[in-house]
Amino acid sequence: MPRTLLAAAILLLLAHAPAQTTSAQAARGYTTSHRADLLQRFSDFLSIPNVAADPDGLRENANFLLAQLRQRNIDAQFLTLAMPNVPAVVYGRIDTPGAQHTIVFYAHYDGQPVTPSEWDIPTPFTPTLRTVDGEQRIYARSAGDDKAAIFAQLTALDALRAANIPLHANIRFVWEGEEEAGSPHLEQILQANTGLVHGDVWLICDGPIDQSGRQTVVFGARGDTHLAITVYGPHRGLHSGHYGNWAPNPAMMLAQLLAGMKDENGHVLIPHFYDGIAPLSPAEKAALARAPVNDPMLMQSFWLGRTDNAPRHLLSLLNEPSLNINGLSSGQTGAHAANVIPPTATADLDLRLVVGIDWRHQQQRVIDYIRSRGYFIVDTEPTQQILTSHPRVALVVRDQASYNAVRTPMDLPIAQEVIAAVESARGEVVLLPTMGGSVPLGAMERAANTRTITVPIANYDDNQHAANENLRLQNLWDGTETMAALLTLQ
Fold it and tell me: Under a CB-based contact definition with an 8 Å cutoff, are residues 144 and 469 in contact?
């Protein structure tokens, strides 16, 4: 056959050859054809209690996940410390012959505490399907944070194997059991197993996607630290008629102390609170400029008539440190209210950090401010002598399970590969320098000698950390496609 005719025949065959199935297409086909079974299996996973106060439940979750890996013929084990009641890290390993990269998938299987009376379903661990705005959601603790990511990773692997799509990189799974408690032992566990957990990149599969509904890739997370502040009045509750206007009221004292920490527009007034912020790179500034501004929609969704630091928008403010009051307690309210001056008042402060600010320094800035307001600072319960020797006393308890912010440069080659893989599955994605929530990225990077990139899959309105936590099911199916694309990274 003449060469020209041979070439034409080859081109004709190629033109009519079936297109190669992509990893995302394989995942879509798999989740579509196995939907009922997948929902049942996801529900079984969500049914296992997973709060820190229930170590037996955490152990059951870990055993469940170890079995899931081994059922798929994945080399799996627990990474532990010789300490009581430290939840195991569930570890899975897939070695690929000739692989040039090792990709580590991180997620956590523990969840926030629950108050069953606040939930609209029988129990927080009774997964319940509901239709919201025409779309199905599943309600249960950890439905969005963070069991969905683990389930999507396992399902994506099943889909790839069913479609005979090979892996190109070595794959590691690291699923933690105490992220919601601040990951106090994660770095120790990883350091004891450096050879097992090292990778070219850790993909942090935690958190919500952009509020616009577009898939998000995030290159950092804010750090986190906490302070508990207690101020003191009389040693016991005093009749508010007999002693009001005379005995100092600690609830009022604490309110005045806290009010001085921020102005009415939400700007923190504590001296040096914003000192040291590492500036964003040109690439990071450009990504923020391209990202959708969802503030008007969010204000409607959350019933807000104003926002702090307006007119600046949410994504810009996530790149600055914040000071939040998690809760206040003093005396009683409602039917239990009594006409007394309470003995104490306590506030829990949540400080979110950005790159360039150390958590110890930020704690100290708050403590220095409290001292500047005339308070004598103690770190243990004050004695009668201390209370009677000082006009104002504050017990300040520093949270030692704290960590700093981390940010990975967007222009690293591995970062560009991750972006391309996610785009192949989900189309145009939102790129963000920093996630508002906190994950112990520094511990991971130090112990595993790696870089971290966050690829979340949950819906933004999943009631994360609150009652009626839920997952929009389409996010689970879309997330499975995203995980499949990442599992087949070169």
Answer: yes
Q: Is 286 helix (H, G, I), strand (E, B) or coil?
A: helix
**pLDDT tens for residues 240-270?**
999 999 999 999 999 999 999 999 999 999 9
More confident residue, 20 or 441: 441
Return the biggest CA–CA distance within the chain.
Answer: 112
The residue among 317, 394, 405 whose CA lies nearest residue 359 is 405
Q: Give residue-wise pLDDT tens across range 415-447.
A: 999 999 999 999 999 999 999 888 889 999 999
CA angle 388, 390, 394 (to 5 degrees): 105
CATH superfamily, region 21-222+405-487: Zn peptidases (3.40.630.10)
Q: Please give the full DSSP string across 417-450, using - where no structure is assigned.
A: HHHHHHHHHHSS-EEES-BSS---HHHHHHHHT-
pTM for this prediction: 0.87
**Buried b / exposed e across 364-390, counting CB within 10 Å, b at 16+?**
ebbbebbeeeebeebeeebeeeebeeb
Q: Omega into 127 within 30° of 0, i.e. cis?
A: no
Let me know: does 165 contact 488? Beta carbons within 8 Å: yes
Ordered alpha helix ranges (H), 193-330? 194-197, 240-243, 250-259, 282-290, 295-302, 314-317
CA distance 352 to 433: 15
Task: Answer for the pair 265, 357: CB distance below 8 angstroms, yes or no.
Answer: no
SS3 10: helix
Which residue ranges make up each domain of the chain?
A: 21-222+405-487, 223-277+318-398
CATH architecture of 223-277+318-398: 2-Layer Sandwich (3.30)
Residue 347's SS3 state is: strand
> Which three-class secondary structure state does DSSP give residue 353?
strand
Which of 280, 282, 222, 217 is closest to 432 using CA atoms? Answer: 217
